[in-house]
Amino acid sequence: DIQMTQSPSSLSASIGDRVTISCRASQSIGSYLNWYQHRPGKAPKLLIYAASSLHSGVPTRFSGSGSGTDFTLTINSLQPEDFGTYYCQQSYYTPRHGFGQGTKLEI
Amino acid sequence: EVQLVESGGGLVQPGGSLRLSCVASGFTFSSYDMHWVRHTAGKGLEWVSAIGTVPGDTNYSGSVKGRFSISRENAKNTLYLQMDSLRAGDTAVYYCARGKYFWTAPPNYGMDVWGPGTTVTVSS
User: How buried is B48 (Cβ within 10 angstroms: 0-12 exposed, 13-18 middle, 19+ buried)?
Assistant: First the structure.
């Protein structure tokens, strides 16, 4: 199985900040990388698919980049509703879509 | 409105069984792969199982293979997860999610619709 490793495990930021979260795959996965937001008590939410494509309805302050083994999620101008845990997920090996361990974002 | 709603969670003793259900609405259920994903505070999100649109197309994570069984009843727009030989480590919130192909170049795949989850607690 492909291992997904995120960094950092947690971070604290202020409203209006720019935040970046990294995700590394144990082998090359091309652009087969998704990002999800998971807030406490809520369903996970797809933010980015194909490494850099913004899912419908997701604010444009979210963006993704990378290919191969290294990927980044960037949140520009952090908003209060952005707190929660962010997960990367590989979609290279369908349907075994493993997740990273998560990055907890505190505002 | 596209929606998924899980049910069937609860408290069960180690070694016991439970069947989760997920009712879909607002889309053509039979046309989509479906997944079960679970969440724990310690491990985060963990993919558990998936079922495709073709009969017999099922997959499981190593941690549940041989104990869990995924199925679907398209006439009832319902996804199931039969969980047997439950362990304390299976304690989690279980989500059902819809798998979707995105027609990027190359085509990509993600889970674009999720239910609110149902809680399973395995404890004596």
Answer: buried
**Integer Cα distance of A31 and A35 in angstroms:** 12
Q: Is A32 on the interface with B (CB under 8 A)?
A: yes
Q: Which residue of B has its CA nearest to A98?
A: B47
Which tens digit of pLDDT belongs to each residue from B36-75?
A: 999 999 999 999 999 999 989 999 999 999 999 999 999 9
3-state class of A77 per DSSP?
Answer: coil
Report, as an integer, the average pLDDT of A3-25: 97
Which residue, chain included where needed, has tokens 């170049």? B105
- In terms of DSSP bridges, do strands A84-90 and A19-25 run parallel, antiparallel, or are they unpaired? unpaired
Share of chain A above pLDDT 70, in %: 100
